[in-house]
Every structure is written in C-alpha cells, then in structure tokens.
Amino acid sequence: MCGDSRSSRKYVFFFLDRANYVMVALTASAILYTHSVGVVYFCAGAVACTVSVKCVKQILRQARPVQTTNREQKQSFGMPSTHSAAITFFGTYIPLACTWLPLHTSFPKSPLFRCLVVLVTVPWTVAVARSRILLGHHTAPQVIVGCVYGFSFACIWFWLWVHGLNDWGQRVERYFGVYIR
User: Fold this and answer.
1) Which top-level group of life is the source organism from (predicted)?
2) Is the pTM of this model over 0.90?
3) Between residues 77 and 139, which one has the greater pLDDT?
4) Chain centroid, CA 155 distance in Å
5) Is residue 96 within 8 Å of residue 121, measured between CB atoms?
6) Residue 81 near residue 132, CB atoms below 8 Å
7) What band does 108 get if pLDDT is binned at 50, 70 and 90?
C-alpha cells in the first residue's frame, strides 16, 4: 500500500511541476472557445505578469535552493518564483472575474458555473505554489514573494479592466465578432 501512495504522489508532483503547460492549454482553449476580448486581456495579463517577474528575478539575482534530489539543478534565479506569481495571477483574477464581471455569452449562465470555476482555481493555485517548495525549486520566501507579486499584479490588471479597458474591449469584440464567429 505504501508503494502505491508514493507512486501516486510522484504522478501528482509530475503534474504540478508542469502546471504552466496545463494553464497555457486551458487559457488557449478559453480564447478559442469564447473569442472574448476579456479572455485575451486576461491572457495578456498573465503573460505580462510572467515577463515582469522574470525581469525582477534578473535584478534580485537570488539563487535557488540547492537541489537535493536526483533532479537537475535549475540555472535561473529563484526570487521571486515565476510559477507562483503566474499561478497566483490566475488564482486571483479568475475569482475576481467570476464575482464582478458579467459572464461571456459563450459560458453557461448558471451561478453554479461561477462557483465551480473558483472551487477548482483556488485549490489548484495553492497546490502549485506549495509544490514549488516541495519539489525543491524554490524556498518558502521565494514562493511567498511570487504569490504576493502575482496577487498584486492581478488586482491592478483587473482594476484597469473594470475602470475603462472593458469599454474598449466590448467595442473591439463587437467590431471583430462579425469576422470570427
């Protein structure tokens, strides 16, 4: 029984270690499914968060923890954690959107849909951020700073959307909607 537990844990960590691929695939699918400018804006925010946190890493230049397993030591800097910043951007922006924005016409109208999305996103965010420490890729402070960075970036990005950029987004969607539906 103990062997099965270790084997399943190994697969869970394998999956969590590749969370960036899962999130890119899900986001691309949402863009293709909805053709929504709001979803494209959200995706642009995730990319901007990731790129900007990588720039901060180059400024701070803090080393990653020494790899104690048989895994290869990552060569990039560790402070702040890019995965933690990016996943926290998702885990912050999505619940804000589910709470405050109208649903896009392509999504189900049920309030249960909004709840389900949040109930999946938030634990996924916590699991991915925690896995960065458990996998030995980052120290706890590197992950915490990454999470604070992603949270702050998402709040600012969401604020920009609801304070004017959404009006432009609706115009763009109406104009191009004729061509992409």
Assistant:
1) Eukaryota
2) no
3) 139
4) 13
5) no
6) yes
7) confident
